[in-house]
Amino acid sequence: MTPTREPAPAAQQQTAPVTSAGPPEPAAAAGQGGTVGTDPAQAVPISVRRAAEWSWRLILIAVATVVVVALIAYLKLVVVPVAVALLLAVLLHPVVTFLHGRARLGKAAAAGIAVVGMVVLVVGLLVLAGRSVVVGMADLWDQAQQGIDQVMTWLAEGPLQLSTDNLQGWIDQAQEAASANSSTIAAGALHATVTIGHVLAGAVIALFCTFFFLLDGRSIWSWVVGLLPRGSREHVHQAGRRGLVTLGAYTRTQILVAAVDATGIGVGAAILQVPLAFPLAILVFLGSFIPIVGAVVTGAVAVLVALVAHGPVVALIMLAVVLGVQQLEGHVLQPFLMGHAVSLHPVAVLLGVAAGSFMAGILGALFAVPVIAVLNTVILYLHGHDKFPQLGHDDHVALRGRGHPVLDRAIAQMAEQEVERAATGDQVDLGEEPATGAETGAATDLDDAGGGEPGARDGRRGGDDEAGTLR
């Protein structure tokens, strides 16, 4: 019988030395002066990391914005007419709807009548204003000359006591400067001629686009939305519908406000017998499309004309008329008509007009507010705030199929050619995938892959027969 050996006490047991490299002791790691296995980014405060993340995102957004603005500025001869056409289409859409629905006209005829009627109205107003300017400009120029003489007399005999020699010297210097810069003036006239050509070309493009926006606006919008990823099309379509409502509300409101401003100031100028009352009314109407700034500038022109024509008393009365009309516009008409459709703070409007005029002059000031209003509506909708819930979500954009008609036809022709070559006994490439579908087709491919070995096929068939007999 073999005696059993008792285990040694735990104190006497010796553990084998560990040869594998284990993790370092905390004391050793601390003695080396650093932490092991930690992310270096954790040493940066969380506030600095968040600021860096926001910074590079804002930089990318700023770069993208600059690129888009530069591209628009480069293509302004096309972009501006298209933008004008969009505004005109929104304005004329109720007219086309009335002619197409109530008058039973075709869509093309309704769009054509609306565009032609708008052109006739604008040309008629310009002709009337031009005749008034031609008739009244001579009298206004004579009155302006008298006003200039009065100013010169006041400068010579008033508190400034400027001598006639000094005034005449200033006049001579102005004439010499005009003569010295005659080439610059000629170049400016040539540039003005080119600008007129661009304006005419832009007007043709705007009218052309307006007609087709009224005729096929839905199809054009569906094509634009179809360029986006399929998952984003519905959101962009619903946001675009709300942006279009905002644009329509802004356009109609500005036209009504401009008409009220022009009527009030024009009637006041006519009552005070200020020259060029009708051209001043048209100028106020056009200037009112630039919020805040346009009304102030055109009102100042009316006051200056009254000052030159009838003196300071009539000018002060004209100033009171202008201020009264502008107060009616700012505190009654715009809040009542626009409502929440264009809910922009006056500070945002003023800053937008200033930024737009700085970047693109008069055109920038004209389009700044509608662009900001539409962007405000679209961005709020994409972030979950619907300003027009009454529109609903029943209107959907037509989605195009995944395929492409031209490519589909080409692929079908290639498939037919492959079938024809297979039918005439052409050699089939072995690298193609075997047919999946009918069992006869798969069997044919297996036979072809057998490389003409009847023995192997017969052996497989014999094995299948034996298996069937055993079953």
From TrEMBL:
It is found in: Cell membrane. Residues 1-36, 421-471 are annotated as: Disordered. It comes from the Bacteria. The chain crosses the membrane at residues 56-75, 81-101, 108-129, 196-215, 276-297, 303-325, 362-382. The keyword Ribosomal protein does not apply. Keywords: Cell membrane, Membrane, Transmembrane, Transmembrane helix, Transport. It is a multi-pass membrane protein. Residues 455-464 have a biased composition (Basic and acidic residues). Belongs to the autoinducer-2 exporter (AI-2E) (TC 2.A.86) family. PANTHER family: PERMEASE PERM-RELATED, TRANSMEMBRANE PROTEIN. This is AI-2E family transporter. It comes from Cellulomonas fulva. The lineage of its organism: Bacteria, Bacillati, Actinomycetota, Actinomycetes, Micrococcales.
